[in-house]
Amino acid sequence: MNIGQTLYDELIGFFGVGGIIKIVQTGNYGYLTTLEGIQTLMGPIIPLLLLLEIVRAFFYKRFKIDEYKIPFLVFVLNRFISRFISIAAVAFCIGLLERWAIFTTTFTWYWLIYGYIVWELSHFVYHFLGHKVRILWCLHSTHHAPQQMNLSVNFAHFFLEAPYADVVRTSICILLGVHPALLFFIMFIDGFWGSFIHIGENVIKDGRLGFLNRILLTPSHHRVHHAKNPLYMDTNFCNLLNIWDRIFKTYQDERRDIKIEYGITREMNPNSLWDVYFGEFICLGRDIAAAPGLKTKLLYIVMPPGWSHTGDHKTARIARESFITSENSIKKDEIPEFVNHI
């Protein structure tokens, strides 16, 4: 094995410039006018923004290697595992479920609008379950473990989360009639935006993005989603359009009076690859082992994180409702007494 060539291929693959290099070598610049060419051109944007983020952090003396170390190690681990495990989840779901679609759409602008709304629903379902089902949280928690927000967080995922997400999202979209070609195009847009909203404050201080904050899910919204503050927990599950978060009442704006605290609520070592990658599985295993009876053991697998068979629940919903109730009570107490008698 040529180690130098392998490292070169990995570097080219990470930065997504392989397609651009090929275009330059062949001189086929007309390819850039096609949909595939535009996708090729957009491929390097997120990795280059990550590089810019790191350079700016160095320049302003804010760079901390611990903020990037674990996401990088997770990325390397996942790349190693993926060489031996290849799960064609999207293709499998399309082949299995396309015949059962309620109707069939086409690759047109009006079906793109429908398809994206359906995609956001499917993303909401996958993401919501990832926070509300304990075993699925074990897969998703690796992404929430970093105690800062920057583009490297994009690469902090448990290796089985992507296949699970693809099965859920693809199945819903195909059954609701989203054409496979349209689905792949939506996935490309969603992948780009989903990466972009992890951008750190070193590049974009105020992630609200002006008027876009009212119509799209911005980096500000996603910073809220990654927060462990009680008010922010389990909110903003969508990726680009916030329609389903508003419908299901999980939408939450970033408040200027609440500083975001990133990470997960259990005590953990954010600099330990083992704890970040397997910590939630270990905690779940301990709870199952200590639980009385088979039914209770199974409940720990499917109930939300923080659920307890003793009734001493510490779920995100309870923490958020408690915070809101407490805040409303404080506000009520601050109203002058003579106002209460009006």
TrEMBL record:
Oxidoreductase as UniProt keyword: yes
Membrane topology, as annotated: Multi-pass membrane protein
Classification via Pfam families: FA_hydroxylase (PF04116)
Positions of transmembrane segments: 12-32, 38-59, 80-97, 109-129, 172-193
Entry's localization field: Endomembrane system
Superkingdom as given in the UniProt entry: Bacteria
Keywords: Lipid metabolism, Membrane, Oxidoreductase, Transmembrane, Transmembrane helix
Keyword Transmembrane among UniProt keywords: yes
Location of the Fatty acid hydroxylase domain: 113-250
Protein's UniProt name: Sterol desaturase family protein
Organism from which the protein derives: Pedobacter punctiformis
